[in-house]
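Record 1 of the preview.
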Amino acid sequence: MAIEYIIVQDATGVQRKVAADLFNTDQYAQLTKLAWGADGTVTLVETTAPLPTKQTHGKTILSGVISASVSGDNNLGSIVSGQSVKILGITFVCTGANVITFKDSGGTALTGAMSFGAQGGLSLGPSGDPTIYVMKPTTVGTGLVINLSAAQQVSGFYVYLQE
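->
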């Protein structure tokens, strides 16, 4: 692509030189540079400042594995002192019939008891906004637990914030 400069007239009648690319013998495409930023600010898109593709509000989004097969409580993650687990999205499948409750490691229920048949499951995708959770956050200083009514494999994953 060879950059050429053409003269265009703006809405006020002023002639301006703009960068363009000749893509046919007589057709030009104006070249533009992407920019982003809050109202009143501009950040040009460059190697050192790429175009953001998801808004995380400065938060690190983590993921965890669900792999439980013991009847009763199954810990899903480690406990971080002074922080809670906030689930943004979750997906799992039960190999056999099961009643599942999510709770924190202190015993506080985060969901009600949910009944699933064999090969049943749940999928709640993240909203794209890391301030919207799909279940109640764990109590500060506790981890995430999945409680199974039956010793049947439950497999899946979850995305979360630890804060």
